[in-house]
Design a protein that fits this description.
single chain; about 230 residues; alpha/beta; FAD/NAD(P)-binding domain; Rossmann fold; four-stranded parallel β-sheet; 11 strands; binds flavin-adenine dinucleotide
Length: about 230
């Protein structure tokens, strides 16, 4: 059996590993758009903060795929699918045949439909390339605005603070972190961003000892270094 997997994230590589174990005689090919092996996306925040390198959060070197018997094709996005002919076209122009195909292409970061959201200097945070772009910009910037006061937004804000930037967090809810995160994991950043002494009503500015500022719906916020 000739298995073809599109997407080398955790879903794709887990499927590839399982297929190798369940059907040892099969052929398993893994096509990935990014030019690098799998990395742990949650670790990107530490890379953004300069605490870890991309290698630190990449558990499998290219040789691992070979050892596992997985034919790995990085840096070559799938661009065309012919289900009737059971063929997949790649950006390189190559066409791959398959018996079974798995699309494990994950998700993309949501860019809110705000005028100007596509301008230079506005980033989303999803991939290693995003982190590289943000870090490059952070080196020459003084201030950053993070849209979204959920866990990821606050972690990103902390990481940007470590570059010495003044950081403002905008959150449309009157609180930082969604309720489950506040109750189960809110002892960390969320709590520190709502330290005693800060105004806690959603329409006021809130700040923590790490200098991250946040605010609630409808307010206007000004950033300042703590
Ligand atoms: C900064 C950050 C922190 C996170 N922290 C957590 C956390 O703490 N806990 C948690 O549970 N989750 C966390 N997540 C979410 C978690 O990373 C995702 O749920 C997970 O990555 C989903 O895995 P996936 O394999 O389904 O998709 P993805 O990781 O998105 O992988 C899909 C892959 O498909 C590739 N691809 C897409 N289109 C094509 C194409 N046409 N051709 C070839 N390849 C293609 C992409 O390049 C990508 O590598 C975090 C995400 C981010 C960005």
């Amino acid at each position: 059996m000739n298995y073809l997997i599109v997407g080398g994230g955790i879903a794709g590589i887990t499927a590839a590993r399982r297929l190798r174990a369940l059907a040892p005689g099969s052929r398993v090919t893994l096509v990935e758009a990014e030019p690098r092996p799998y990395y742990l996306r949650p670790g990107l925040i530490a890379v953004l903060a300069g605490e870890k390198s991309l290698e630190d959060i990449s558990p499998y070197p290219p040789s691992w795929y070979e050892e596992q018997g997985i034919e790995f094709r990085p840096g070559n996005p799938a661009v065309e699918l012919d289900p009737a002919g059971q063929r997949l076209g790649l950006a390189s122009g190559e066409t791959l045949a398959y018996d079974r195909l798995l699309l494990a292409t994950g998700a993309e970061a949501f860019r809110p439909p705000i005028p100007g959201a596509d301008l230079a200097g506005v980033f989303t945070l999803r991939s290693a390339a995003d982190v590289e772009r943000i870090r490059t910009r952070a080196e020459e910037a003084n201030a950053a605005l993070v849209i979204g006061g959920g866990w990821l937004g606050l972690e990103a804000a902390r990481a940007l603070r470590s570059h010495g930037l003044s950081v403002t967090v905008l959150e449309r809810s009157p609180w930082l972190l969604p309720p489950p995160a506040r109750s189960s994991r809110g002892g960390g950043l969320g709590k520190s961003a709502r330290k005693p002494g800060d105004r806690r009503t959603g329409r006021e500015r809130v700040s923590g000892p790490d200098g991250v500022l946040g605010g609630g719906t409808g307010a206007s916020w000004g950033g300042r270094r703590a």
